[in-house]
Design goal:
Elements: H1 9-33, H2 36-89, H3 95-177, H4 181-193, E1 200-204, E2 207-208, H5 217-225, E3 230-231, E4 238-240, H6 242-258
Parallel strand pairs: 1-4
Antiparallel strand pairs: 1-2, 3-4
Helix pairs in contact: 1-3, 1-6, 2-3
């Protein structure tokens, strides 16, 4: 092949269209994967969030059970004190001592009532937490199953396409190195500015590929002559004639089949 400085306009157009076909094939492969990598990432985040929530709920349960244990101990201590005060009342010397012990008994009885009320509230919290744990566990199982399915789907697609994609990206670099830098920059700029990534398109039915704007016959003749690089005035895309496009498509299909 001629060097960059010696390349004819036709050679430049062929090289640019070949590059476009390679990059479009990479786009196709990535479209097959579609949103799957993002879906997997989102599911992984969701599963992690649910696991963190489960851990927190279990810690909350442990804390509540500890609090219930502490309240039960308090009740046992209060009952022991009540028994002690009742024994002491049998040996009092006057009503003042008796009344004082009675007040201590009443205080401990109130402590028992309060502790029992707290235990009842804690048990209600446990029931509520267990319901949340059950629903979170169910949701986690469902999301983990969905994640496993999506990962399997993604891995299958990656196994099919990763090798080809790497080979195509390498080819893209090779072809870019054979085209003068000015044209590569223009190509990449156009490619980044259009939704479908098509920077070089053939004329189809008198209009640039993917466009409804008709190209004047005189301009079509100029494009077919391959004497200069012509861009579509509406989209900025570089235009090639359909014959050149078909020839390069056949050539690149052979290349793709070997990758």
């Amino acid at each position: 092949m001629a060097t960059k400085t010696e390349a004819t306009v036709e050679e430049k157009l062929r090289a640019l269209y070949d590059l476009q076909l390679i990059d479009s094939r990479v786009d196709e492969i990535r479209n097959v994967r579609g949103e799957l990598p993002l879906e997997v990432e989102d599911l992984e985040d969701e599963v992690l969030g649910l696991k963190t929530r489960m851990d927190k709920l279990k810690t909350d349960l442990e804390t509540i059970n500890y609090e219930i244990g502490a309240k039960k101990n308090l009740i046992d201590e209060a009952k022991t004190l009540i028994k002690k005060y009742a024994e002491q009342q049998k040996n009092v010397r006057n009503s003042r001592e008796f009344n004082s012990l009675t007040k201590e008994v009443e205080f401990q009885e109130l402590e028992i009532q309060l502790a029992e009320k707290n235990i009842k509230e804690f048990k209600a919290q446990i029931d509520q937490k267990k319901e949340v744990i059950a629903s979170t566990k169910e949701r986690l199982g469902e999301r983990e199953s969905h994640l496993k399915h999506k990962k399997s789907e993604l891995n299958a697609i990656l196994a099919e396409t990763e090798k080809e994609e790497k080979a195509l990206l390498k080819k893209s670099e090779e072809f870019q190195s054979q085209i003068e830098e000015r044209l590569v920059k223009a190509y990449n700029r156009i490619r980044n500015n259009v939704k479908n990534g098509l920077a070089v398109v053939p004329i189809e039915r008198g209009a640039s590929g993917g466009s409804f704007f008709t190209i004047p016959p005189q301009v079509q003749v100029e494009i077919a002559s391959r004497k200069k690089i012509i861009s579509d005035e509406h989209s900025g895309r570089i235009l090639v004639d359909p014959v050149l496009a078909e020839e390069e498509q056949e050539k690149m299909q052979k290349l793709f089949s070997k990758l």
